[in-house]
Structure formats: structure tokens, C-alpha cells
Amino acid sequence: MRIYLLNNEKYEGVENYPVISFSPLISSIEFDNIDYLIFTSKNAVRITNAIIDEWKKIPTIAIGKATANEIKHLGGSVEYQSNSGYGEELAKEIDKIYKNKTFLWLRPKKVVTNLKEYIKNNTLIEIIVYETICNKPNKKLIKPAIVIFTSPSTVKCFSKIENFEEIIPIAIGKKTKEVLKQFTSSEIFIPKNPNIKECINLAKNINKSNLLN
């Protein structure tokens, strides 16, 4: 059974079926009086890096290991990395560790969690650096299949071009799972840790059990 990832990131044993793309919304960023940057996605890191190099001079806060690795890969420094992978937990951790600091959150247009609701002891400034756009792949999705959904946006964009019959859905996290429930009555699998590699390992284990065969 094929395993599909709904973006263009390459992993062994997984096929890409990109239903989303990313469009930058700004051309410059100011970093005056900013103590730390916050990144809650790898795409925000990549797009920020394409806009300006100055971000690398400011210590960053990463939502999880994958985002932290992307920051390091592009030459930035990671001051703190959350292990939860969830925005709400990240914001609470920031408020517990830091006091009276100014954070710049470089974020997508649509977010699963608004960090401002949870950061009370520090100042949070937001800049929307990109938006997610639905994309129609130029290939056919072969069913039955295991499909990995990495965000609520991938669920919604997938629903516009495909149905959910004969697929085993894997949700990267709790919010994505909740959105998937609106489109399918099938069992939705979720990894212990919300990252793509964990999703892929889960998919490969499911594949061995032949749930749709």
C-alpha cells in the first residue's frame, strides 16, 4: 500500500502528493528591540531566510525538533526548543522560562494556536510572513493508501480534490485529527510525538499490518 505525504518533503518509502504550497506575503522584516524570534513551522524559517539574513543574529525559540533542525541548518541559533510540538504548550513554556522579554513570532497567515492567548509575562509581536494555498497535484493518488496529514490546511485542501474512501488517515497532531473527523468516519491514527518522521514510522507499521488489504 502506498504512503502519501501531502507536501514536497522527501522521505524514503513515501510518495509526495502536494496539496498545499506557500506564498510569501512580505518583502522585509525589522528586528529592532527584539530579544527572541519564535518559529512554529519549518516553512516560516525557510521563507524568513529567503527574505532576510539578519534573523540569524537573533536567538530563536522553536516549536519542535524539526523546526529547530531547520533553524540550525540555515545558520540560525536555537535558544530553546519545545518537546511538545504544540503551540499552546510552547507559549506556556515561554512564559514560565522568560519574563519581560520581547518576542517576534514569524508566522503563517492561519495558525492552529494563537500564542498571544497564552503569553502573559512577555511581549509578543506577530508578523505574518506567508500564507498556505491549496494546490492540485499533477499526479494521481493510487488507492488504497495511507495518507499523512500534517496540518488542518492539508486536510481541507485534500478534501477539495479527493474523497476519503479507501485511505487510512494519519494526523500529525490533535488539532489536525479534529479537522479530519469532519471528513471521515475511518479510524484516525496519530503518532506519540507530532512530527513527520513519527508519522512516517507509524504509517510503515500500519502498512505491515495490511489494514486495507
UniProtKB/TrEMBL annotation:
InterPro entries documented for this protein:
4pyrrol_syn_uPrphyn_synt_sf (IPR036108), 4pyrrol_synth_uPrphyn_synth (IPR003754), UROS/Hem4 (IPR039793)
Sequence ranges assigned to domain Tetrapyrrole biosynthesis uroporphyrinogen III synthase in this UniProt record: 17-200
EC number(s) per UniProt? Answer: 4.2.1.75
Major enzyme class = lyase
According to UniProt, this protein's pathway is: Porphyrin-containing compound metabolism; protoporphyrin-IX biosynthesis; coproporphyrinogen-III from 5-aminolevulinate: step 3/4
A single GO molecular function term of this UniProt record? uroporphyrinogen-III synthase activity
Q: Which GO terms describe its biological process?
A: protoporphyrinogen IX biosynthetic process; uroporphyrinogen III biosynthetic process
Q: Which family does it belong to?
A: Belongs to the uroporphyrinogen-III synthase family.
The free-text function statement in the UniProt record for this protein reads: Catalyzes cyclization of the linear tetrapyrrole, hydroxymethylbilane, to the macrocyclic uroporphyrinogen III.
Protein name, UniProt field:
Uroporphyrinogen-III synthase
Species = Caminibacter mediatlanticus TB-2
